[in-house]
């Protein structure tokens, strides 16, 4: 009976040690809900802006207020005038 208890305790200890190692080395997930908001809630305060973001202001604690840049697309009616290099809309 004692050997069964010892084996069970050893298995529990190994499992606990394995789970501790896995959770210790995992990166914590960042929840964007708790990030400080800026620029009328359109921006977020962070240490550095991402590639698709633009720095528009400064936040507290030396953080930057970053807003996602919206890509500008061309209309279907616009076509590039290759000779002059500007867009011309068909009328």
From TrEMBL:
Compartment(s): Secreted
InterPro entries xref list: Beta_defensin_dom
Keyword Secreted: yes
Positions of the Beta-defensin domain: 37-66
Domain of life: Eukaryota
Biological process, per Gene Ontology: defense response to bacterium; innate immune response
Keywords: Antibiotic, Antimicrobial, Defensin, Disulfide bond, Secreted, Signal
GO terms, molecular function: CCR2 chemokine receptor binding; heparin binding; lipopolysaccharide binding
UniProt keyword Transit peptide present: no
One Gene Ontology CC term in the entry: nucleus
Family designation: Belongs to the beta-defensin family.
Function description: Has antibacterial activity.
Protein name: Beta-defensin
Originating organism: Rattus norvegicus
Gene name tied to this protein: Defb34
């Amino acid at each position: 009976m004692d050997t069964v208890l010892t084996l069970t305790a050893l298995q529990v200890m190994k499992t606990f040690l394995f789970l501790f190692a896995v959770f210790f080395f995992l990166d914590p997930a960042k929840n964007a809900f708790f990030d400080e908001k800026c620029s009328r809630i359109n921006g977020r305060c962070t240490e550095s802006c991402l590639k698709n973001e633009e720095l528009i202001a400064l936040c507290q604690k030396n953080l930057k207020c970053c807003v996602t840049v919206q890509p500008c697309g061309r209309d279907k009616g616009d076509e590039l005038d290759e000779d002059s290099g500007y867009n011309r809309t068909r009328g």
